[in-house]
Amino acid sequence: MKTSLFSRKDFQVAFLALLFILAIAPFAMAITAPAAGSFAYDVYDIGVNQMLKGPIGFVAGVVAIIMGAAAAIMGEVMYAIPAILGGGVLLKADALVTSLGALI
């Protein structure tokens, strides 16, 4: 008779996964915005400065928030929440690019 929802093996796998995550956490680093003339600055400039921080990112963020608000008014909360959160992320994408860590 099984009394627990999780078996002993499930706990062992979860514990090993936690240890693995803690072992690789010091290697996570956030990127720093490249300066003009450095490696891949042109790609960063087009992707982040001209698209995300520019009118394309602003319009996409506002449209996503409006779509989320419209979905919320229609009572479809499960569609509204990701749209509003995604719109907010697009509006603050420049800060997120340099604050999120990346495993290298």
Rg over CA atoms = 21 Å
Number of strands: 2
Q: For the largest sheet, list the strands in their spatial order.
A: 1-2
Distance between the termini: 45 Å
Residue windows where pLDDT falls under 50 for at least 5 positions? none
The number of helical elements comes to 5
Q: What's the rounded overall pLDDT mean?
A: 82
Main structural class: mainly alpha
- How much beta, percentage-wise? 5-15%
H/E element sequence: HEHHHHE
What helical percentage do the residues reach?
Answer: 55-70%
Biggest sheet features: 2 strands, antiparallel
The backbone outline, from C-alpha atoms, is flat
Transmembrane segments: 56-75
Keywords: Membrane, Transmembrane, Transmembrane helix
Q: Can you tell me about this structure?
A:
The chain is mostly helical. It has a domain at about 40-104. It is about 65% helix and about 5% strand. The protein has five helices and two strands, in the order αβααααβ. The protein has a two-stranded antiparallel ribbon. The longest helix is centred in the middle third of the chain and has 19 residues, at about 55-75. The chain starts with 7 loop residues before the first helix and ends with a strand. The mean pLDDT is about 80.
Topology readout:
Layout: H1 8-24, E1 28-30, H2 41-52, H3 55-73, H4 77-91, H5 93-99, E2 101-103
Antiparallel strand pairs: 1-2
Helix pairs in contact: 3-4
